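Hi support team,

I submitted a single chain yesterday and got back a structure, but I'm not sure I'm reading the token output correctly. Could someone confirm the output below corresponds to the sequence I sent? I've pasted both exactly as they appear in my results page.

Thanks,
R.
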Amino acid sequence: MDEARVRGLMGLCARARQAVFGEDGCLKSIRGGTCALLLLDAGASPATREKYELTCSHHGVPLRVLPEGLLGDATGRPGVAMAVQRGGLAAQLLMSLPTEGNDTDKISGGASAE
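Hi R., thanks for writing in. Yes, this is the structure output for that exact sequence:
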């Protein structure tokens, strides 16, 4: 993982209003289908982590766990989760983070090239 690139992309997401913070906002974004990627801080409690894992799994949203403190440092916002909205920034973030499978088909925000 290129931490500097991930940090920069997360900051861009926050400034471009392509990120949702807070438990209620993140869960609403996931359930509403607007979340392309959920970033979770490694310092999240086991109960919080399980809640997000189950919700993301049910709705087909990729979840990536970040090193503790990276989320707050990169965005300047407190919290343990960030829902990234569909679009190019989400695609770039997902490609920059360690992969657990090919989830890129779930993040496009535009027309299909097929």
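A quick pointer for reading it: The longest helix spans residues 46-59. Let us know if anything else looks off.

Best,
Support desk
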